[in-house]
Amino acid sequence: MFYREAGDFKTSYVEDSQTFPLRLDRRAYYVLLAVAFGVVPLFINDYWANAVFVPFLIYAIAALGLNILTGYCGQVSLGTGGFMAVGAYSVYKLMTAFPDVSIVIHILLAGLITAGVGLLFGLPSLRIKGFYLAVATLAAQFFLVWLFNKVPWFYNYSASGQISAPERTVLGHAVTGPNTTAAAKYLICLTLLFALAWLARNLTRGAFGRKWMAIRDMDIAAEIIGVNPLTAKLSAFAVSSFYIGVAGALLFSVYLGAAEVGEAFGIQKSFLVLFMVIIGGLGSIFGSFAGAAFMVLLPVLLKNVLVGQLGWATDLAAHIELMIVGGLIVTFLIVEPHGLAQLWRLTKEKLRLWPFPH
Amino acid sequence: MTDMTEGYTTADGRRIGPVLMDLRNITLRFGGVEAIKNISFDIREGEIRAIIGPNGAGKSSMLNVISGFYHPQEGEVWFRGRKRPPMKPYEVARQGIARTFQNIALFEGMSVLDNIMTGRLTLMKTGMLSQAVWWGRAQREEVAHREKVERIIDFLEIQSIRKTPVGRLPYGLKKRVELARALAAEPKLLLLDEPMAGMNVEEKEDMCRFILDVNDEFGTTIALIEHDMGVVMDLSDRVVVMDYGKKIGDGTPDEIRNNQDVIDAYLGVSHD
Where does the ABC transporter domain lie (chain B) (predicted)? Predict the structure, then answer.
């Protein structure tokens, strides 16, 4: 009875199409934003930043990207890791080639480069669908990792074959390199995530979102009402790859600091992000956040409980952790195939009446 | 038959205009099978034109030729006075031809409102960047199109389900939403593939009313395939009859009713 739309009247189509139609939702959203931007940076320390917040923020960007492609446009991709590598190596080349240009511009450019590469690997989607497309994107994954391993130009001929991020600053604060504070890492990722999530929401609720969803739900009907499948699918690939590229650039430059392509951007990354999207909820912005939080937080939580509370040996705990995460994912998919976003929607439906039964 | 180059006036006094779509000697083959054999007919502006015939006569193939799914091996398609080159379905849609399907082809994961809004995608012009920023052009455009769509929602009396996901709707309503989506594109020519299949009498009456209203209020030209002879004879101004890919009759409902070939192939005679 406290959470409901009664009395919240809409008198224009603008009001009717806003992201949070309920006043209570809007307030909660503003409070969350204020806490995320104003309070968390004051208290964040290295452990929380490195174990929880920064990976969550970065993977949320990647999950948003994959959700646009797979959740909204219905094109399955297993190339996420490869596209993240494109973002990482692009930002590395740009950082080292143009040290005076702002890192923010480099990250966005890395996103654009990845969008171009994604567009290229999206071309097969015009001919093939479903599993076959997944295999084609898998080829992208392996090809890109191989490319960054084999061509020394990409890692500036370094002896180890690794790339490592030099120090770069934003507004006088280091955001990459060893001297970066936890708050600076957190804030740059949060700002980018906020901006990208807002753009993604706008794209998916407007004409582009409808084009993508139309292709997803029934491509023949989409074509008959005037959607060009070529531009719809390729735009989804480009936008999605842009997000994934930015996530890859951040993962390398802000979070890891140094990376080796096979290790940091292997096939596991592709599956990790795909799990996030499926568990969070396909075709939902909120689901991308929820899925990223679930996949980042669950291992941390389990580790704390098993090693910290129960005092098990670390190696045993690590194995058990894998089994539990795997089991939970399977259970989850059986109980709620539409993901955390659907659970959240159901909760909100129930809340409208709570605590009364009718 | 009177000279019809400038159109004609129907029995109920509606003025029918010049030819909108002209199909000339269309032949469509699938391998060795000739689905359509050398068929010619025209559809005039403001007309309700029915295509009837027994199962497998090639009616749906004909509709698919018009909407660009199939490309005939022989023959020409003339639309609005111009010969149409082979086109993809989405290009045909942009020319102002909308259609519904025999088996409903809605976007199940989207709400009724979103489904109908997709009908206006060809008319929405803002680019990706202004879409992403939303404020300003994209929002103004969205609201302008929403107003048009709401008019269609009112017209088809589906206000109460506008936010419902299409997957949850019953069959009759889905058919209505599909009509709404086609109408949202403001088509010059509306193709309806069995709009009344599987409906009960009440739903059929509603659908008939909507089809007549669409034709009357928006002046939309309609070509429909239908098996319910009562409906066809009541609604349509002129009827094409097909059998085994050939045209066996073309004319007003009265002419068709008394055409011996059509009676033999399709209508039959009552035995009472």
Answer: 21-269
Q: Is the pLDDT of residue A7 over 90?
A: no
Residue A142 is predicted with a pLDDT of 94
Give the residue extent of every domain in chain A: 22-267
B105–A228 CB contact, under 8 Å: no
In the predicted model, what is the mean pLDDT of residues A334-344? Answer: 85
Residue B31 sits in a domain whose CATH number is 3.40.50.300
pTM for the whole structure: 0.90
Interface ipTM:
0.88
Where residue B5 falls among pLDDT bands split at 50, 70, 90? low
Helices (H), chain A: 13-16, 23-34, 40-43, 46-48, 54-66, 80-97, 103-122, 130-150, 182-205, 207-217, 219-224, 229-250, 261-264, 267-280, 285-303, 314-335, 339-351
**Is residue B246 in a domain?**
yes
Chain B contact for A270 (CB, 8 A cutoff): no
Q: What pLDDT was estimated at residue A290?
A: 93
Asked if the structure places residue B208 within a domain, the reply is: no
CB atoms inside a 10 Å sphere around CB A11? 7
Q: Which residues form the domain of B79?
A: 17-92+232-272
Least confident residue range of A74-83, B133-142, B232-241? B133-142
Count how many domains chain B has: 1
Residue of B65, B66, B90 best to disrupt the A interface, most CBs of A under 10 A: B90
CA distance A321 to B209: 63
Q: Residue B2: pLDDT band by 50, 70, 90 thresholds? A: very low
Q: How far is B218 from chain A (nearest CA, A)?
A: 19
Distance CA A265, CA A87 (A): 10
Q: Does B144 touch chain A (CB under 8 A)?
A: no
User: Is pLDDT at B11 greater than 50 in this prediction?
Assistant: yes
